[in-house]
Amino acid sequence: MAAIVTNWAGNLAFHASDVYRPASVEELRVLVARSPSVRAIGSGHSFSDVVDTRGALVSLDALPRTVELDGSTVRVGGAVRYAELAPRLHQAGFALRNLASLPHITVAGSVATATHGSGDGNGNLATAVRAMELVTAEGDLVTLTADDPRLSGAVVGLGALGVAVSLTLELVPAFEVRQYVFEDLPLEVLDDHVDEVFGSGYSVSLFTGWRRPVVDQVWVKRVSDEAPDLFGARPADGPRHPIPGASPEPCTEQLGVPGPWHERLPHFRPEFTPSAGQELQSEFLLPRRHTVAALRALHGIRAVLAPVLQISEIRTVAADDLWLSPAYGQDVAGFHFTWIKDVSRVLPVIETVTRALEPYEARPHWGKLFTAVAPYARMADFRELVGAFDPQGKFANDFLRRVM
């Protein structure tokens, strides 16, 4: 097939020599076995070069869109997106515990990069995985299950172990959510009440442009029918978009109207393109105990941030046991940045943010732009796992060589 030229945002031009769309798992196995270098691409929504390759790039879009319910789990194909999975689960009376801001992304790609969503009690999307099937370097089909200790290393695998052709996810009963938006929460409130603010809903996001000493918007998603009281923050008098002044039409319903979990937990509706890609993104996740100090550190460099920033989002994610998850072993707060689309201006600011957050043990999101990687306690174990699955480095790329 003709090469995919860029990722979703257009900030990366892929170097792939060929792009393939196999129509079956057997076809994929043959392709992987005969290729000296190969990487898989999902929705192309990563801003980093995590999927880039100078060899063969493989899209799973032509594979069967497998969605197989089995009690309290579901097996999904490698190309299935949350937008197509979630309504089917809800119709059957089930739900996922957590969803990301965008339902447009693939399950396999999101899991591989520890993409997360938010909520004090919610682990990232990868924590739902109970089994996975991989096409490995020799074209073998390998299944890892929950009783295999390697699964915790393979789930957030950055594409280094093989091509994920299916994932089995844990489910919970379907539930309803109400979404409320509040405006102008004084930043100083968070000094003493940060845990109460993040604990005010099932999922809570703070949005700020770092231009004023306030949180511009607080998005609270609740499973109860009572609106919270957020320390004097003003309830929005109508629907809002996270970016002030942008049309709220692409956003999920607000104003406390109850609705299914998959129509409230994401910020954006699947029938809309939430952005034309005119942006760059980065994100840093750090231990929850450092949240207030990190807020103050970023407020201290707001004059550097604001000129190249569209909006920043702060949210929480629960601890997990996945080796390359930024939430490995500890609850974290994520500081997300949606920048203007100007790499030459944005990269120096990302470096400034990296330095500002370094004292707080910040780790970057694997699928966003970053300039440095903090140590991971299980990185040596992950290298050993990669060596066992792919001794010749068939799935290696420049990204993996840098971070490993």
TrEMBL record:
InterPro entries: ALO_C (IPR007173), FAD-bd_PCMH (IPR016166), FAD-bd_PCMH-like_sf (IPR036318), FAD-bd_PCMH_sub1 (IPR016167), FAD-bd_PCMH_sub2 (IPR016169), FAD_lactone_oxidase-like (IPR010031), Oxid_FAD_bind_N (IPR006094), Vanillyl_alc_oxidase_C-sub2 (IPR016171)
Domain FAD-binding PCMH-type: residue ranges: 12-174
Keywords assigned: Oxidoreductase
Pfam families found in the cross-reference section: ALO, FAD_binding_4
Enzyme class: oxidoreductase
Molecular functions (GO terms): xylitol oxidase activity
Tagged with keyword Transcription regulation: no
EC number annotated for this UniProt entry: 1.1.3.41
Protein name (record): Xylitol oxidase
Organism: Nonomuraea africana
High-level lineage: Bacteria, Bacillati, Actinomycetota, Actinomycetes, Streptosporangiales
